[in-house]
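Continuing the series of single-chain predictions for the mutant panel. This is the parent chain; the variants come on the following pages.
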Amino acid sequence: MRCATTRWHRFEFSASGADFSYSLRCEAERPLVLQGDAGYSRKSQREQASYYYSQPWFKASGRVVIDDKSTDVSGLAWMDREWSSQPLAPDQPGWDWLSLHMNSGEKLMLYRLRQSDGHHYASGNWILPDGKTRQLASADIGMTPKTLTEIEGRKIPTSWDITIPALDLTISCAPLNAKAWMGTSFAYWEGPIGFRGSHAELDISS
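Parent structure:
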């Protein structure tokens, strides 16, 4: 994959393989969003933390070619950047994360750090259409895995029930491809999802 940019709010991406290629242009409508406390994102009640910002305002357009069939595409994109010198604690075996574009214009970022004792640590950010944000504490968030998919000998949570009473939000999330496994040197699950419930997803793809 190649990436070119002249400013932080505009990117161009291109990639190709044996039977596919794509080229995309992403332009952001608003500034970056700092996650956590001005970019300082806690990952437990102890000292685990990272610096973390997002760009959830990208509009993407371009072309995808699969098996010599070309299709023009457009939609929304979300970029994250996160770094830390502190790995997860020994009693934190995994991390569940999602980002959602609502058809009402809001955006939601949530993550849950799994704890071995079952007292998981969650955090989130409710992003308003005007760019203002509302941080969500662990006590505000309900993230319940509903389906486990076995991949590479591991059982991965791939569908969820999400509740945030303070926002009157109750939704169910399901993957488009439950086998969206990233078999890199640091293997993990990542892929697009759909959701429904009290809030609906924004779909402007073509």
